[in-house]
Amino acid sequence: KKISDILEKSAPKPGVPADLQNLLSQHFGENRSVIEIEELKLSDSCFLPANDLTHSFSSYLKEICPKWAKLRKNHKEKKSVVMLVICSSALRSLELIKSMTAFKGDCRVLKLFARHIKIKEQMSMLEKGVFHIGVGTPGRVKALVEQDGLCLNSTKYMILDWNWRDQKLRKMMDIPEIKKETIDLLEMSIIKLCREGSVKLGLF
């Protein structure tokens, strides 16, 4: 049976924090020591409420971030965003940006994917202006962090587009390349920031 045949018949189940934790344990379990795996564990306090599939993107963001107007007003740092949204493709990024209109108000959103946008352009935009939300793919976000184009110190929220399925009914974590890049990004800096309490993770 194809995975899409099985998925078509199964009712969608919303992602929960344990799903991400299990995924990380499986991914690192084979080649890490027990101590190293402990350091990659995230407690439930690192997570925002997960989407129960009843929300639109804007209504979900309003629920997890009721003080957005204040956060947005206080954010003055360049090369950084308050909220980072990670999804599987450039097209999905554009969809999510459109669907957060009711939430974002007049704040500035930056597209963080590779299609038609050079990384140098994104770096110079981040350097010159103040952006509140970044929406994009894990590979490009990771590259920006590695090249010091994006600093995560001001980031408070990281939302993974966890439940959405593409035309082949794959979630972002069903696509090997996206899964690997997302886990790399989490391991590189996000997990540490979550454990320190400065970033909260949301599964939409």
Q: What are the salient characteristics of this protein?
A:
204 residues; 5 strands; 10 helices; alpha/beta
Average pLDDT, all residues? 93
Estimate nothing, just give the exact number of structural domains. Answer: 1
Q: Structural class of the helices, strands and pairings?
A: alpha/beta
Determine and state the CATH class. Answer: Alpha Beta
* Percent of residues in β-strands: 5-15%
Please give the largest β-sheet.
5 strands, parallel
Radius of gyration: 17 Å
N-to-C SSE string, H for helix and E for strand: HHHHHEHHEHEHEHE
In a few lines, what is going on in this structure?
The protein has 204 residues and is an alpha/beta fold.
Question: Helices, strands, pairings?
Answer:
Elements: H1 3-9, H2 17-29, H3 34-39, H4 57-64, H5 68-74, E1 83-86, H6 90-99, H7 101-104, E2 109-112, H8 119-128, E3 133-136, H9 138-146, E4 157-160, H10 176-196, E5 200-203
Helix pairs in contact: 9-10
Pfam families: CMS1
Protein name: CMS1 protein
InterPro entries: Cms1, P-loop_NTPase
Polypeptide structure, described:
The chain is of the alpha/beta class. The protein has one domain: Rossmann fold. 47% of the residues lie in helices and 10% in strands. It has a 5-stranded parallel beta sheet, sandwiched between helices. Helix 10 links the parallel strand 4 and strand 5. Helix 9 crosses helix 10.
